[in-house]
Design goal:
This protein is α+β, with helices and mostly antiparallel strands. It contains five helices and six strands. A six-stranded antiparallel β-sheet has the order 3-2-1-6-5-4, with helices on both faces. A hairpin with a 3-residue loop joins strand 1 and strand 2. Helix 1 runs antiparallel to helix 2 and helix 1 packs parallel to helix 4. The termini are far apart.
Length: 205
C-alpha cells in the first residue's frame, strides 16, 4: 500500500510540474506577442519555446483564412506540408469546424495527412478572432501517451493568445493605412489651395 501511495504521489507531482511548465509557456507566448506582435521572428521563437519547454516533438504554425493557410513557422519536421485548404487533413477539419482537434492515434483518423511517418498523436487548434479564422497552431508527438487533455487546454490558450495578437496587428495595419491616406489627402488639399492661378492649380492636381 505504501508503494502504491508513493507511486501515486510521484505521478501527481509529475503532473503538477508539467502543468506548471504549460502555464509558464502560455505566459511566455503572451509576453512575446505583446512585445513584438506576430512578426516572423516571434513565431519562430514561439515554436522553439513550445518544443523546448514543453517537449512537443513537432510544432507548426499556419496563417491564413478559412480558405487556406500557409506554413509560417515550424520545428521538428524534416519535410513539411506548406499549405492546407479546408478539404484535407486534420488541420483542414479544424478550418471547417473552427473547433480544436485532439487525435490520440492518427492511424485511425481518416483526415490525417502525414508530414512525418513517426507521428502518432496530434493536437490542432484554430486561431479565431470574432469568429474569423486567422490560422492554426499544431503540435504532434511520436507516442500517443505524450499528449493528453492538459495539452489540449494549453494549445487552446496558446491559440487564443496568438489570435488576439494577429487581430491587433491587423487593426494596427488598418489604422496605419488610414492615417497614411489622410496624410496624403491633407498634402493634396494643401498643394491645391496654395494658389489661385489656374495653371498652377492644374499642375498641382
Amino acid at each position: 500500500a505504501l508503494k502504491v501511495t508513493v507511486a501515486r504521489l510521484h505521478a501527481s507531482l509529475a503532473r503538477d510540474r508539467r502543468r506548471s511548465r504549460q502555464v509558464a509557456a502560455v505566459e511566455s507566448v503572451g509576453r512575446l506577442l505583446a512585445a513584438t506582435g506576430p512578426a516572423p521572428e516571434t513565431l519562430e521563437r514561439i515554436v522553439s519555446l513550445l518544443r523546448e519547454d514543453l517537449g512537443y516533438d513537432f510544432v507548426s504554425i499556419y496563417l491564413g483564412s478559412s480558405a487556406s493557410v500557409r506554413l509560417a513557422a515550424q520545428r521538428g519536421y524534416d519535410t513539411v506540408i506548406d499549405e492546407f485548404d479546408a478539404t484535407s487533413g486534420v488541420i483542414g477539419r479544424v478550418m471547417r469546424t473552427r473547433q480544436i482537434a485532439f487525435v490520440p492515434d492518427v492511424a485511425v483518423d481518416p483526415d490525417y495527412r502525414a508530414a512525418s511517418g513517426i507521428v502518432r498523436a496530434e493536437i490542432s487548434a484554430p486561431m479565431l478572432a470574432d469568429g474569423e479564422l486567422l490560422g492554426v497552431v499544431n503540435v504532434e508527438a511520436r507516442r500517443s501517451a505524450e499528449l493528453d487533455r492538459s495539452d489540449v487546454e494549453t494549445m487552446s490558450l496558446v491559440a487564443e493568445r496568438m489570435a488576439t495578437a494577429l487581430a491587433l496587428a491587423r487593426e494596427r495595419d488598418r489604422l496605419a493605412a488610414r492615417a497614411e491616406r489622410f496624410r496624403r489627402l491633407t498634402a493634396f488639399a494643401t498643394a491645391v489651395n496654395a494658389t489661385l492661378d489656374p495653371a498652377r492649380v492644374h499642375q498641382a492636381i
